[in-house]
Amino acid sequence: MCVRVSGQLSPSVKNPHPSSSSNKTTSMPTLHKVLFISLTFLFVAVTFTFLAVEAKHWKHHLIPFPIFGDGGEGGEGEDKPDFETKSKGHWDLISQNSGVSAMQINLMPNNKMNVYDATVYRLSRLKLPAGVPCVPFVVERTKEKRQDCFAHAMEYDIETNKVRPLKVITDPWCSCGGLAPDGTLVSAGGFADGGKTIRYIGGNKCQRDDCDWREFANTLKEDRWYATQQILPNGDFIVIGGRRSFSYEFLPRQEGKSVDKPFFFPFLYETADIDENNLYPFVHLSTDGNLFVFSNNRSVLLNPNNNKIVRTYPVLPGGSRNYPASGMSTLLPINLTTTTEFAESSPLFKAEVLICGGNTHDAFLLAETKKIFHPALRDCNRMVITDPNPEWEYELMPSGRTMGDALNLPNGQILFINGAQKGTAAWWDADDPNFNPVLYSPKKPKGKRFKVLKPSQIARMYHSTSAVLPSGKIWVAGSNTHDTYKDKDKYPTETRVEAFSPPYLDTSLDKFRPQIVEEASDKNLRYGLGFTTHFKVEDDDGELTKNDIKVTMYFPPFTTHGFSMNQRLLVLKTEYVGDGLLKGVRVVRWKAPPFGEVAPPGYYLIFVVHRGVPSKGMWVHLQ
């Protein structure tokens, strides 16, 4: 039984000491009362002073919670619409001559762009530093012995636009790569002596600014020329395909070790045609840990643990999408705020693939033999690869595109950039540069997803590349349609570097742009745990909620030949948005990805996005 006491429920109990008078009241002397109250106030003041000092020192470890019904959580309704802008972007020339044409690139966690070309040319516009030995080689045609003193790789500082020559010996022409969990760039394959080579740069073995490539020839079992490299949920790499290599192999974890054995992959043989059209297959890690592999016009889901194909997808009609027809592909943003049920109540996050452009099956043969350049494909197709009954959804881009890049922007949009409107990949096999980037908004209704942006003045054709920077700008470089470096030509060898600012960098949106307070934000992440990011917004009316703010996480890809390997953007689950510990600073609490199938371990860029306007990215490490 309970009785109400002072407005609360309290258990009803009998007095265990009936002899004691419950009617008596004991009065505290007035002096004692004063001393008691004074000491209480002193204790409270000292406690709050201590907490304030500790909070200032440990502010990045404290997680603010809503107090007494504070509305910082925000409603669970729909997200607020993105801020609108009429901007079509902006171009800046940031380097007149970087020295090396950017055939293959990867942004590193130290904010340096690692760039390398082929060594087969024996020529570039950048010399090896004084004191670095030249590379001896033999001219195949004349058997003459010569010295190659040119740099075919470089480190480009994205903050100063200065370059540092790097030395690569085995030929990395048309190789593949990816960023390992410790920040090492691992590159596999290439041409001739580079075909079976694994290379490494950066990571724990590079603690100084003069780090260079570490190369181990003959560590792959098969030549990997035009192969694709994909990071797996445990941080290991798989390398798939290559010219006349209908197999895949797993790279060893230990540097310098050799691969155990290759695994025959009949699917690659089945999708080869007279022009191949199955090189640089599109490979995406699905959210269930299996690999979506697209080759030519067909796709399967491969289980890398038991080496079995677990499902086959509908054929994508219209033409070929892989090299040399060279369409574009990426995973659409993976939304971790919602889950679907898969198998028996196992949560699975939706994974959707986008494949656009390319050319007809015979386009390369016509371009190579007759210099007839077919118009590039205009279609853009998407499919939910985790759906029980997947189907391709078709629509048309504003223009055809081959050899373009598809980049995931920090606000969830996709940018199509670079490439040509006629022909295919390979030397001298394309025409009509596609100067206009195109913005694709996947969440908008069909028919309203594309926006044509401001054109570049530089043709970015075969062997051009692009990458998302922490600033939100796009680093654009490369283009060499020749078997050497040419200064004067219709499409000369490009060593100029541009920065493209997408519409979300419109200065009229700066007042809405979050600014991350890095020193107060979490950077070392653990799967499934909660973390906080502190940020400021100039135009902050104090009403920001979860419906205004998103946190996205971007894995920086290895980009070459129109495909950005390992690229993925995750929309993290936001738990709270409210006031930080300092005046004018806001905090967003979010959950890290739950497991490696959704987000492999390694370095990512975190962005705070305010209704479509992203902050600058902050490097974090997930493990």
> What proportion of the residues form beta strands (DSSP E)?
25-35%
CATH topology of the domain at 64-81 and 513-622: Immunoglobulin-like
Main sheet properties: 7 strands, mixed
The computed structural class is mainly beta
Helix content: under 10%
| E-strand count | 49
The CATH homologous superfamily of the domain at 64-81 and 513-622 is termed Immunoglobulins
What is the global morphology?
Answer: globular
Overall mean pLDDT stands at 89
Output the CATH class name of the domain at 64-81 and 513-622: Mainly Beta
Distance between the termini: 53 Å
Low-confidence stretches: 1-37, 39-75
Under the CATH scheme, the architecture of the domain at 64-81 and 513-622 is Sandwich
If helices are DSSP runs of H or I spanning 4 or more residues, what is the number of helices?
Answer: 3
Rg measurement, Å = 29 Å
How would you sum up this structure in a few lines?
The protein is mostly beta strands and 623 residues long.
Q: What does this molecule look like?
A:
- This protein has 623 residues and is mainly β.
- It has a domain at 64-81 and 513-622: Immunoglobulins (Immunoglobulin-like), CATH 2.60.40.10.
- Helices cover 7% and strands 34% of the residues.
- Strands 23, 39, 41, 44, 47, 48 and 49 form a 7-stranded mixed β-sheet that branches.
- A hairpin with a 5-residue loop joins strand 18 (282-285) and strand 19 (291-295).
- The longest helix has 28 residues, at 30-57.
